[in-house]
Amino acid sequence: MNVVEQYARAQLVADADAPQSVGRTVPVRLSYDPGRDPRAVRVTLSGPAGHEWSLRRELLERGLRAPAGSGDVQVWPCGRVQVVVEFHSAQGVFMVQFETKALTRFLRRAHVAAAAAEPVPH
User: Fold this and answer.
1) Distance CA 16, CA 100 (A)
2) Do residues 30 and 43 touch, judged by C-beta distance below 8 A?
3) Could you say which of 40, 44, 49, 106 would form a disulfide bridge with 29 (CB–CB 3.0 to 4.6 Å)?
C-alpha cells in the first residue's frame, strides 16, 4: 500500500487550548493510508499541543470548492488561495487555514494511492 504523507504549513485562526498562539504559522503533517482507512485522512499539527484529527478525504475535496461538513469538522474556501478547516471538540474550537495548493497537491496524491489500492476486478 502506498502511504501518502505531505508536510505543509498552516495559520492558526483559533485555538481553544492556547488562544495566545492564534496567528502563528505551524507545521502540519497530512497523511493518507488506504490500508488503514481508504476514506480518511489524518491532519497532525506539531507543537506543544500536538493535535491530530481524522476526517473524510471527500470532505476536504468538497471543502476546496464550497462550504462542506457537519458536526465536528467544517471545511470551506477562504478567498481564492486558502481553505479553512474547523475542528470542534469538548475543549472548544480549533481552526487552521491552509494554502489551497498544498491541500490540492496532497489530495491528488491520495487519489492516486486510493486507486492503486483498489482490488483489480477479475
Assistant:
1) 24
2) yes
3) 44
- Report all structural domains of the chain as residue ranges with CATH numbers, in order of start: 4-117 (2.30.31.20)
Q: What is the pTM of this model?
A: 0.84
- pLDDT of the residue at 122: 59
Q: pLDDT tens across 47-65, in order? A: 655 688 899 999 999 999 9
Contact status, residue 98 vs residue 8, Cβ threshold 8 Å: yes
Per-residue pLDDT band at 121 (split at 50, 70, 90): low
**Helix (H) and strand (E) counts for the chain?**
2, 8
Classify burial at 72, counting beta carbons within 10 Å of its beta carbon; exposed 0-12, middle 13-18, buried 19 or more. exposed
